[in-house]
Q: What sequence folds into this?
């Protein structure tokens, strides 16, 4: 026999409360988190190891607004000889 009743469960989840450019402090959230702007960059490095029985990975992440990416980061990368790759997506 199964006895079934409705129960209310509570759980914790992570929500982004603040998302700002790490260079200039510009708000990257927009007014609607579901339909906001996608005009920001995330630079990250992932470092770690993977073994058959386990693994470990560490990410170092920097969030940058589009203006800082275009006016500060990309020019600096160009000075280092980097030519960025571009991709377009339509939906
Ligand atoms: Zn910025």
A:
């Amino acid at each position: 026999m199964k006895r079934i009743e409705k129960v209310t469960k509570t759980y914790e989840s992570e929500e982004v409360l603040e998302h700002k450019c790490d260079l200039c402090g510009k708000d990257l959230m927009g007014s609607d988190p579901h339909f906001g702007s996608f005009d920001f960059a995330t630079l990250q490095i992932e470092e770690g190891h993977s073994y058959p029985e386990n693994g470990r990975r560490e990410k170092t992440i920097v969030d940058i607004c589009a203006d800082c990416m275009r006016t500060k980061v990309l020019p600096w990368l160009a000075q280092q000889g980097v030519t960025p790759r571009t991709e377009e997506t339509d939906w």
Q: What stands out?
A: The mean pLDDT is 89. The radius of gyration is 20 Å. The first helix runs from residue 66 to 79. The chain has one domain: 19-82.
